């Protein structure tokens, strides 16, 4: 599913974000990416969705070499990857329904298909009753569930989540985690960068720990436990 | 591209135009003004060219003769005229012919001249053509000195003045058009830049969701094109109705002036204006997107 071979990333300003990383993630896995700020977690996710190119090494997603991919192919890669961020990134002028529908509109979907698919996804995240509300009138948890609905509406093979619970209280965070688990059970691979140690410890999933641009630990059903 | 996508492009473009309404209006206004200048000077140049060609083809010297000359005198005069340097053709026109031609040039309003047949005030004349237009002034001067010639007349300076006018209209029209066209392109580029700026967050989200470059750019391209087309349309309407009413006025008040009224030529001018408006809009958008929206 995801393969990184000897990947290094040095930004134009000289910052060495990743240093000769090797990482393999199989289809259907649920992987936590942990480590202090500046360890290289965000850079890693940016390489996977090709927001950045590695300085050295190769990145394979779903059998495709992302580094050698042409620019015009990138949108089609991103449609296979659902992204969820700490700050939700919803469009404030659009309702919950429209925000989710937007991901479909971009792919050129018909109105009929949008009307068929969006309500199903909203029901899955438990927002069918708030479809016509604007993001500003939702709680943080509901906004993030909207973002998750948008991330999964195109049936992605991979979900990249960058601190999805960073702005949520513990209880809401847990509810969101249950949603991610649910999505994962349906076969979608999930890579989640997070600082929520309690969640990582309790979920007993694979944990990849990073520090100073290196992978310092990679264990199945591990815990957060790194010393910072 | 599905119907839904097309609808999306237009809806987003319309939203942007409304959101930046004052800039959109300024852009439309600049386009209107530059296209009006283009259309106006184009029509002026076309008309002057049309008029000069009719004037030039009839550029001849009319030699008015004194009344009551003998036929012998006339024959001698004709020989003398033929000897004047530059003269190519000589034609005798009787006073009756002259009146008939005058009536013809008045067309439907010829009745003004009725009753003149009895006491025709027009003199007999020779119509003299020179080999080239520039020989007219010298020839005319020599003709005036011949015995029996009362008066010599030709279109003194008219042609030269008209040609000089087109020359300046062409130069200044082009300069103004280039300056204002550039201003219009710049204003549209600014409008689009503001739209891009207002939507930069949304653009980021679109890219994250896997929108193609075309999808991200199309609404902004459309925005510029719509602004250009609206400006072009308004300018075309103004020129069209303005010119038609001018034509009507000229036909009534100055019947002897022949303006360009060929519909094909007019549609070409108007079509060119509309096309240029569209081009300005598209160019402004493209420049702005190239500079501010690298996706």
Written overview of the protein:
Chain B: InterPro entries: ABC3_permease_C, FtsX, FtsX_ECD, FtsX_firmicutes-type, FtsX_proteobact-type. The complex is a heterodimer of chains A (228) and B (295). Chain A is globular. Chain A starts with a strand and ends in a 9-residue tail after the last strand. Chain A is of the alpha/beta class. In chain A, a hairpin with a 2-residue loop joins β4 and β5 (64-65). In chain A, 32% of the residues lie in helices and 26% in strands. The mean pLDDT of chain A is 92. In chain A, the strands form 2 sheets. Chain A has a 6-stranded mixed β-sheet, with helices on both faces. In chain A, strands 2-1-4-5 form a 4-stranded antiparallel β-sheet, covered by helices on one side. In chain B, α6 (158-198) packs antiparallel against α8. Chain B is elongated and about 100 Å long. The two termini of chain B are 20 Å apart. Chains A and B meet through α2 and α3 of A and α1 and α7 of B.
The gist of it:
The complex is a heterodimer of chains A (228) and B (295). Chain A is built from seven helices and ten strands. Chain A is an alpha/beta fold and 228 residues long.
List keywords for this structure.
heterodimer, A: 228 residues, alpha/beta, Rossmann fold, 6-stranded mixed sheet, 4-stranded antiparallel sheet, 10 strands, 32% helix, globular, B: 295 residues, alpha+beta, Alpha-Beta Plaits, 2 domains, 4 strands, 71% helix
Low-confidence stretches of chain B: none
Q: Kindly report the greatest chain-chain contact and the residue count on each side.
A: A-B, 25 and 19 residues
Strand fraction of chain A equals: 25-35%
What's the tally of helices of chain A? 7
Named at the architecture level, the CATH assignment of the largest domain in chain A is 3-Layer(aba) Sandwich
Subunit structure (chain B): Forms a membrane-associated complex with FtsE.
Keywords (chain B): Cell cycle, Cell division, Cell inner membrane, Cell membrane, Membrane, Transmembrane, Transmembrane helix
Membrane topology (chain B): Multi-pass membrane protein
GO biological process, one term (chain B): cell division
């Amino acid at each position: 599913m995801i393969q990184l071979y000897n990947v290094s990333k040095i930004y134009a300003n000289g910052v060495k974000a990743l240093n000769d990383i090797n990482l393999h993630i199989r289809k259907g896995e649920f992987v936590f990416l942990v480590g202090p700020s500046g360890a290289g977690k965000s850079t890693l996710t940016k390489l996977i969705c090709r927001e950045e190119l590695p300085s050295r090494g190769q990145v394979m997603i779903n059998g495709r070499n992302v580094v050698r991919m042409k620019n015009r192919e990138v949108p089609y890669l991103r449609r296979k990857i659902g992204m969820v961020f700490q700050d939700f990134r919803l469009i404030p002028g659009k309702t919950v329904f429209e925000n989710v529908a937007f991901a479909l509109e971009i792919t050129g979907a018909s109105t009929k298909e949008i009307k068929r698919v969006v309500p199903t996804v909203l029901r899955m995240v438990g927002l069918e009753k708030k479809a016509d509300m604007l993001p500003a009138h939702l709680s943080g948890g509901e906004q993030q569930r909207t973002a998750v609905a948008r991330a999964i509406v195109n049936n992605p093979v991979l979900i990249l989540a960058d601190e999805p619970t960073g702005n949520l209280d513990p209880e809401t965070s847990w509810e969101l985690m249950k949603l991610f688990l649910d999505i994962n059970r349906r076969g979608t691979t999930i890579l989640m960068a997070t600082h929520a140690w309690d969640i990582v410890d309790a979920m007993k999933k694979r944990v990849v720990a990073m520090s100073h641009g290196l992978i310092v630990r990679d264990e199945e059903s591990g815990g957060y436990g790194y010393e910072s | 591209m599905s119907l839904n996508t097309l609808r999306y492009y237009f809806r987003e473009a319309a939203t942007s135009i409304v959101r930046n309404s004052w800039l959109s209006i300024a852009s439309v206004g600049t386009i209107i003004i530059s296209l009006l200048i283009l259309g106006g000077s184009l029509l002026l140049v076309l008309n002057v060219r049309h008029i000069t060609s009719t004037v030039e083809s009839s550029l001849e010297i009319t030699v008015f003769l004194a009344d009551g000359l003998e036929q012998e005198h006339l024959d001698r005069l004709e020989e003398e005229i033929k000897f004047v340097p530059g003269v190519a053709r000589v034609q005798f026109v009787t006073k009756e012919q002259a009146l008939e031609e005058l009536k013809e040039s008045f067309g439907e309003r010829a009745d003004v001249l009725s009753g003149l047949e009895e006491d025709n005030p027009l003199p007999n004349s020779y119509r003299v053509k020179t080999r080239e237009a520039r020989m007219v002034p010298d020839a005319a001067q020599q003709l005036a000195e011949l015995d029996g010639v009362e008066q010599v007349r030709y279109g003194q300076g008219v042609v030269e003045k008209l040609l000089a006018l087109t020359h300046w209209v062409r130069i200044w029209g082009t300069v103004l058009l280039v300056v204002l066209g550039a201003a219009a392109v710049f204003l549209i580029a600014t409008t689009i830049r503001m739209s891009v700026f207002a939507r930069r967050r949304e653009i980021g989200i679109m890219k994250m969701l896997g929108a193609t470059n075309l999808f991200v750019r199309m609404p902004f391209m459309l925005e510029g094109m719509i602004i250009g087309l609206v400006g072009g349309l308004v300018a075309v309407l103004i020129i069209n109705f303005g010119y038609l009413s001018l034509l009507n006025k000229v036909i009534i008040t100055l019947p002897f002036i022949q303006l360009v009224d060929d519909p094909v030529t007019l549609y070409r001018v108007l079509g060119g204006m509309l096309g240029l408006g569209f081009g300005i809009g598209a160019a402004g958008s493209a420049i702005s997107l190239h500079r501010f929206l690298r996706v």
